[in-house]
Amino acid sequence: MAKEISELTLQDDVRYTEDHEWARKEGGAVKIGISDYAQDQLGDIVFVELPEVDSELEKGDEFGTVESTKAVSELYMPLGGKVVAVNEALADDPEQVNKDPYSGGWMVEIEPSDPAEFDAMMDKDAYLEMLKGL
Amino acid sequence: MKVAGTTGLIMNEPLLWEKSKKGRCGISIPESDVPSAPLDAEFEGEGPDFPDLSEVDVVRHFTRLSQWNFGVDTGMYPLGSCTMKYNPKINEKIAAMPGFAGAHPMLPPELSQGTLQLMYELEGFLNEITGMDATTLQPAAGAHGELTAMLLFYAYHKSKGEKRSKILIPDTAHGTNPASATLCGYESIPLESGEDGILTVERVAELMDEDTAGIMVTNPNTLGLFEENIKKIAEIVHDKGGLVYCDGANMNAVMGVVKMGAIGIDAIHLNLHKTFSTPHGGGGPGSGPVCVKKHLEPFLPVPRVTKDGDRYVFQYDRPDSIGKIHAFYGNYGIQIRAYSYILTMGQDLKRASQYAVLSANYIKEKLKDVLHLPYDRPCMHECVFTDKNQEPYKITTLDMAKRLIDYGFHPPTIYFPLVVHGSIMIEPTDTEPKENLDQFIEAFRSIAREAAENPDLLREAPTVPKVRRLDEATAARKPVLCGVN
């Protein structure tokens, strides 16, 4: 049962993409995951495929897939960089993406190649406006 | 309204391993009349953990499971994109004829003239139905047919001294198309359909270039719509030296109506197990022949069945062939059933397609005031609704699909095609009589009323069958793949 927009958790400390990924600055690194809206639309997530550590990816590149009981969806890099860590815990516990999309459900951590790409992402208000228009 | 589904005495049944009693056995193996010999130590070890059961244990087990099940012989099975039409029993009778059932694939052609004749003639029938020039029967199912066609495209371009790297795939194509293209080394370029759900000539013209091997079009597409611009699209692709592949999984809409060869298609696969009424679901077997135009014939898999005077022979000496793509000659038992279906239907094959389209349009018109119809235009053999009208009651496509089971119908395909949010894809096929269609329509209208008045009925559904709503998420996250833990 899909959430109303007012029921969604949208955090202030992350930036968003049109494809519903989020990115959060943590020191010099950036963590990436999918938004509460994305996990809600996908439904029960049963598998997350993530890239190799050390992969170099550009903004918009596919970095993995997320499989729910409904469909398989691609994940796209909100900004370019080198993958320094992936969330290994999702292999046994993919439901973390449903339960806790902004924290336990993070997917990859990167060293960004161009910090300006982060600043160009939507903030919470802009993302909320975009969701209302969907 | 008279509901098709009811309750009855259904037996509980444990897993075979739970029924197992040490030492119980269903057969007596004859005493060996050859001397025993020692086995290399490397092959020794524990055998697989099979349960010990008698014949009656096994027969009752599977009979009981079959009573929990729902198939095309039980009732209407409008699973969109799957063409779950009724499978006439005469096809089974023909396939069981001892000459066919007992044929060994290694018999030489001179002792297999009848089996070869059937293949030769079936290829001819499929050429005629599609308007193409030559057919291979080897591919084992639809996606295998797609892969075969991609290998043919690759071989064709190679013969022209070219190596192309990309292929265009519309968002209304079958989901397996990108996988088949990727296996063949092509990069899939997504092609968005236009606002009315079909491809536009302009978008294809923008994306098609001389590094693109061609296009994979599902026609009719997964929205159940006919690609009306296909001829112009084919011209654009051909002008750049590319080829047009048609995913023919939806051929049940257009048999005897559209000559694929005349609208610019270079290769098309057919699903014998869908369009030509052979039993499927539950994993197969399928059969996915590929029909091609003359310029792709040299590349078809070997062996080809050809005629030498009055004799049917296997031809292997074809230097441009992509080689074998299946052991022996494909899923032959399925070919027999399709052959039988085509001969028993004769010119009524065209009427089958007409009924399939009429039935889908009838359902579309009769339900569009209660279910949201995203593309309100004449459809082919299936129609696509969404759960948008039920959103205010927090009822989803899944809830409605589950509730249909209580009314005695197999649910339609749900959440596919992906381009439509919350899609409900209904394919009644040509074999449902009007009274069944009316009963299905009445059931769905009743479910739409329940969604507004008593939505919990839907959320708890299904309540009538032996097995209630399954926990699909846990089944996928923590699958149990052996009989015993």
Which short descriptors sum up this protein?
heterodimer, A: 134 residues, alpha+beta, OB fold (Dihydrolipoamide Acetyltransferase, E2P), six-stranded antiparallel beta sheet, three-stranded antiparallel beta sheet, B: 485 residues, alpha/beta, Aspartate Aminotransferase, domain 2, Aspartate Aminotransferase, domain 1, 2 domains, seven-stranded mixed beta sheet, 35% helix, globular
Descriptive report:
In chain A, 19% of the residues lie in helices and 33% in strands. Chain A has 134 residues and is of the alpha+beta class. Chain A has one domain: RNA polymerase II/Efflux pump adaptor protein, barrel-sandwich hybrid domain (OB fold (Dihydrolipoamide Acetyltransferase, E2P)). The model of chain A has no long low-confidence stretch (mean pLDDT 94). The longest helix of chain B is centred in the last third of the chain and has 20 residues, at 348-367. In chain B, helix 12 runs parallel beside helix 14 (434-453). Chain B has two domains: 103-345, Type I PLP-dependent aspartate aminotransferase-like (Major domain) (Aspartate Aminotransferase, domain 2, 3-Layer(aba) Sandwich); 348-476, Aspartate Aminotransferase, domain 1 (Alpha-Beta Complex). In chain B, the strands form three sheets. A seven-stranded mixed beta sheet of chain B has the order 1-7-6-5-4-2-3, with helices on both faces. Chain B has 485 residues and is an alpha/beta fold. The radius of gyration of chain B is 25 Å and the shape is globular. Chain B has helices at residues 16-19, 55-68, 89-95, 98-101, 113-130, 142-159, 176-183, 201-207, 230-239, 272-275, 332-345, 348-367, 397-406, 434-453, 455-459, 472-477, and strands spanning 134-136, 166-170, 187-191, 212-218, 243-248, 267-270, 290-292, 304-308, 311-315, 383-385, 413-414, 424-426. The interface between A and B is small, with 12 and 10 residues.
